[in-house]
């Protein structure tokens, strides 16, 4: 397991996502699941009629941060895009194993599937930081 994958596990499936529309920033907490074959690609869902979807349709660039764990471990990046995925819920549903996610999204197949892709990320903790880049 890579260090990035260890930080993904430490996030426990939660992420803060910052979007901007007309120079107005907005921050949301969302549940995610990482693609096991491409750890720099994460999937999220959202109701189709939310402001978040309108923001993303106009600007796919986002900034993210995962919640800190007891060691301050978190993933941070402003080198991320989030767009509507070409995959279907059936393609990725096995990635979503967190029961809290499933409780909060009882019908994810009716929501918009989003695909978040990292170009690079900062792995930060109280003990230090490391930057990872993806091809």
What brief labels describe this structure?
single chain; 135 residues; alpha+beta; 9-stranded antiparallel beta sheet
Please specify the SSE layout and strand pairing.
Blueprint: H1 3-11, E1 14-21, E2 24-31, E3 33-35, E4 38-46, H2 51-58, E5 61-65, E6 74-84, H3 89-92, H4 99-104, E7 112-118, E8 120-125, E9 128-133
Antiparallel strand pairs: 1-2, 1-5, 3-4, 4-7, 5-6, 6-7, 6-8, 8-9
- Assembly state: single chain
Percentage beta strand = over 45%
Helicity level, as a percent range?
Answer: 10-25%
Average pLDDT level = 94
Parts with pLDDT < 50 across at least 5 consecutive residues: none
End-to-end distance:
18 Å
Order of helices and strands: HEEEEHEEHHEEE
Largest sheet: 9 strands, antiparallel
User: What would you call the shape?
Assistant: globular
Structural class: alpha+beta
Your description of this structure?
- With 135 residues, this protein is α+β, with helices and mostly antiparallel strands.
- It has helices spanning 3-11, 51-58, 89-92, 99-104, and strands at 14-21, 24-31, 33-35, 38-46, 61-65, 74-84, 112-118, 120-125, 128-133.
- Strands 1, 2, 3, 4, 5, 6, 7, 8 and 9 form a nine-stranded antiparallel β-sheet that branches.
Q: Could you write a compact summary of the structure shown?
A:
This protein has 135 residues and is α+β, with helices and mostly antiparallel strands.
